[in-house]
């Protein structure tokens, strides 16, 4: 009877082993930027869901963002220069919601919500306008 044993290795030891193996082959391991985990589309969607608890309002906001940027925090329209999740034009408008507007989904979502609420009354009204016009 063949019995195999799987050893438990701590994450620290596994990383050290990987670093040694990489160095042996001439590779370099680097840490990812601290904000990398917060800029992905699923993470931005999770932030929006927390900020927009009403399901209908979140769905409308999500529809707009999906069409405008595909939930890409750094999306830039090559012809107009519109930027971010909600495609603000110019993108620097979002600085009114925070200095980190270029990379922080929460800042962009806050600005987008404020814009939709002030211009259309709500994200659902903004989505209705978007559906009728192809923009908002």
From TrEMBL:
Q: Which UniProt keywords apply?
A: Signal
- Listed InterPro entries: Lysozyme-like_dom_sf, Transglycosylase_SLT_dom_1
Signal sequence segment: 1-36
Q: One Pfam family, short name please?
A: SLT
Can you give the residue ranges of the Transglycosylase SLT domain? 59-125
The protein's name is Transglycosylase SLT domain-containing protein
């Amino acid at each position: 009877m063949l019995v195999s044993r799987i050893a438990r290795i701590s994450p620290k030891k596994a990383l050290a082993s990987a670093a040694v193996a990489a160095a042996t082959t001439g590779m370099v391991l680097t840490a990812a930027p601290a904000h990398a985990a917060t800029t992905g589309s699923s993470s931005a969607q999770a932030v929006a869901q927390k900020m927009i608890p009403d399901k209908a309002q979140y769905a409308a906001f999500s529809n707009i963002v999906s069409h405008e940027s595909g939930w890409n925090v750094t999306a830039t329209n090559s012809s107009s220069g519109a930027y971010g999740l909600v495609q603000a034009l110019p993108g620097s408008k979002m600085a009114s919601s925070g200095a980190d507007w270029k990379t922080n989904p929460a800042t962009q979502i806050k600005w987008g919500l404020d814009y939709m609420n002030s211009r259309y009354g709500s994200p659902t009204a903004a989505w209705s306008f978007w559906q009728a016009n192809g923009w908002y």
